[in-house]
Amino acid sequence: MVIESKDNQRFKSWMKLKLKKHRDETNLFLVYGKKLVDLALAHGVCEEVVTTNPEIEGTLISEKLMKELSQTETTFDVMAVCKKVSNPIQSDKILVLDDVQNPDNVGALLRSALAFGFKHVILSQKSADLYNEKTIRASQGAIFDVYVERLNLVEFLTLKKDEGYQVFGADAHASKNQPEEGPIILVLGNEGNGLSNEVKELANGFINIKTETVESLNVVVAGSILMYEWGKVR
Known about the structure:
The termini are far apart. The chain is an alpha/beta fold. The chain contains 9 helices and 10 strands. The strands form 2 sheets. It has a 6-stranded parallel β-sheet.
């Protein structure tokens, strides 16, 4: 049987998941497209597959309703309702995002973090929502393999420094000290304002990337370069 009515209760519940408030209340979120749906199934976090394609196993809905559920110009023929699951991962390389607010940036950084071994990622309270559709899409599925927490950064960094982690902030204008061997935390700041003063006070040092002509790099580009360089030697 195909769901065709906007009054259908299941359809209404899926529509609500487009809003952060309801994702937080239900601990559920949506992913779109075959690649992400397959990853959700493979990781055991898929609660329900919803599709317009009768050849795909799942709940069938009309193309009109799928378009309503879509959050992009492209309408996929399959989506999944997923449960929020984050399995702890111990890592000697941790990425911290200090109020990175653009969901595309957060998602792309998660993808780079996974690629370069920074499998533990900390989001500040004001960083973009991990389960925003743009974040998920930009991560290309990395959200399923990276351990992400949203924490008070001052408390977290203080604790990790006591455990022997070095804290280095990315700074577009200054470098101070260099990381030594051992566990490390890379902190990336807000797109417009950079690192917060509270984080700067806790840093062991700062690192910048020397550039020609341009004054600074996008936070995703800079963060990816630094994770690549530090990932090679640790």
